[in-house]
């Protein structure tokens, strides 16, 4: 991990924005993510726009579909000390 460098600039993102960012990075539409997760597209839209809370169970479901740890979705602004960074 000696090549790890923290980002020069940080931005705050909401839980819904973290879902949207990961979905878009994987080039998935809300409809495609809905098919992968079984979560209705309207609910995905509401989560991404902050109208509906993500919740732990949905975070687990999204994490499986988006190949990430649920904590990435639930705690998007969590600061990890450099010595603990993976």
Question: How is the topology of this model organized?
Answer:
Elements: H1 15-25, H2 30-37, H3 41-48, H4 56-66, H5 70-74
In CATH, the topology is named 434 Repressor (Amino-terminal Domain)
Report the radius of gyration as a whole number of Å.
Answer: 14 Å
* pLDDT averaged over residues: 88
The CATH homologous superfamily is named lambda repressor-like DNA-binding domains
> What is the number of E strands?
0
Please tell me the total number of domains: 1
Unreliable runs, pLDDT <50, ≥5 residues?
A: none
| Structure annotation, total helices | 5
Question: How would you describe this structure to a colleague?
Answer:
The model has no long low-confidence stretch (mean pLDDT 88). With 86 residues, this protein is mostly helical. The relative contact order is 0.19. The protein has one domain: 434 Repressor (Amino-terminal Domain) (Orthogonal Bundle), CATH 1.10.260.
